[in-house]
Amino acid sequence: MTNHPLDLAGIGIGPFNLSLAAHLDAVEGVEALFFERRNAFDWHPGMMLPDVTLQTSFLKDLVSATHPSSPWSFLSFLVAKKRFYDFMNADFAAIPRREFAQYLSWAAQGLPTLRFGAGIDEVDFDGRNFILRSGKREQRARNIALGVGLKPALPAFANRLREDDHFHSSQARFRLGACAGKRVAVIGGGQSGAEILLHLLNQTDNAPSHVAWISQRPNFLPLDETPFTNELFTPPYVASFRDLPEPRRHATVEREKLAGDGVSSETLTAIYRRLYVLRHLEPSGPEVELLPHRDVVNAEPREGGYQLIMRNGMDGMMGIGHAEIVILATGYRYELPDCLAPLTGRIVIDRTGRPVPDADFAVAWDGPSANRIFALNAGLISHGIAEPQLSLMAWRGAVIANALLGRRQFDVEVPNSMVNWRSQMHTDARLDTARSNGRLFSP
């Protein structure tokens, strides 16, 4: 920590603050430090199951979209690790998630502004600077960037589950070994639930005796990766989305859910093929139940397990399931970090509990406009479904860097979109007359 105010202090070092640090590394004269409680960078270690892949192109890395000459790109990582040609020849349809995690760790080890093992306990404001406290040490900063990530979203019945026989998907890699020979319920029909199910089905010596895959969705639905859906993950779409009224933004996010939260078609195909093998070629494997369109409304503890009460959305009937281990692949939620408690009453919060970021990701608060709180991964309602994804990570980092510098250091100009998302306003009187007469599209 320094004795003078930083231009920026980053709280938390995940991929998003890592991208911001990588951009600022290219700018001379900026004093920024990023603080993380963990002793080293470790990206979603609990979901790093064998053979899982990235649902995003490797070109959507920390910097390539906005600073392609940066030494912190994924291609630079491949060259530095002497694997560029091997990677090209492997011709991955989707790259291994472990490799992207290695890339992020490589960047974290090389960037000089990162401070691991230095958790921030409290953030306050003295009228001129933010005061960050870590143990007995203090650091002043004119601006802060929140990159602390999301927390597990748990259903209401989770507080009835015992600690030793349930876990969230974020802990899967460390807890799945306990499923051997047990009746297991995987609750959640997204990518995490699918990956956990596939892992359990592929076990031989440590296979569960029974697996139920339960999802609220009407079927086990695929991620929409078609070109026009991928337009939702571009700066032009974000610009159009931001101009919508808040109620319409909420509805749009819900409608577009499967664009960012479906199951990859490769994973669904692998599950179906494994089910085929278990049914026709290896009948000694675990019993499997696929239960879409089920809402688990309660989990009642029983000796040796749980009775799951489910409502079937297709026929309206109630059903009962039994499990010895419950795995909650129920996603994540945003929550302001505890260290911001002294400032909580000063930050504007929307109805979902999120702060309200402006176009440059600085949130609304009652402090001086010169002192900004940048929030990364808080703008699902303000910026759309791309916000929690890796897709616009580099663009967001560049936008924040430009806002911090007060100049266009990185090119983040919004290009013309392939799609006209918003209505065009016309002043031609003839068009107005045609609209009023209902003949705008008449032959």
UniProtKB/TrEMBL annotation:
SUPFAM superfamilies xref list: FAD/NAD(P)-binding domain
Superkingdom, taxonomy of origin: Bacteria
InterPro entries, alphabetized: FAD/NAD-bd_sf, Lys/Orn_oxygenase
GO molecular function list: monooxygenase activity
Pathway participation: Siderophore biosynthesis
UniProt KW keywords: FAD, Flavoprotein, Monooxygenase, NADP, Oxidoreductase
Protein name: Lysine 6-monooxygenase
Lineage of producing organism: Bacteria, Pseudomonadati, Pseudomonadota, Alphaproteobacteria, Hyphomicrobiales
